[in-house]
């Protein structure tokens, strides 16, 4: 289960609890329990308002994470198209650096992939990543580089070989128009999911033997267990 899918399950539980609390506060009005005064009624309405606001926030987070989980599922299916020389890890958690959507290890090197499900025209201009001519609210390039550095640090004591890792921001939506050329910003690739396999198979980050691929793959799994 991916990080987004796990968060969806937890949020559904939160939403259920909030619905029960809201229902209970309506069925057994809080202001009556507080004495039935005007002040008690005001407190009662404030409490219901806070619960409704929390419920709306949870529903909004479920919607966003459902979209994200759908994007991750799309990339998961796409990565199955890699040949058997490649190894794929999903939802890689290293320390407190958050969740890496996918790490691919193969003869072309180590790839750190951050999945985004945004729609629209995606392009690079003036050193910025834009969607429909406007910058994103979050810096996805900094995010994927942070994950890449965290993974490098975690493998230093486990791998004698110096590893070169390639960060990638992959847009999963079929409504994301990323363009036909391979694009880089701050040395991180930005691609649509339809070009992800071609990127990984044809662009060499660091040539790795089959034995090295297996050792790196095992080292990453051990780093995950060590958290």
UniProtKB/TrEMBL annotation:
- Which residue ranges traverse the bilayer? 12-32, 38-56
Query: What name appears for this protein in its UniProt entry?
Result: NERD domain-containing protein
Q: Which residues form the NERD domain?
A: 67-178
**Pfam families cross-referenced by the UniProt entry:** NERD (PF08378)
Print the keywords alphabetically. Answer: Membrane, Transmembrane, Transmembrane helix
Taxonomically, which superkingdom? Bacteria
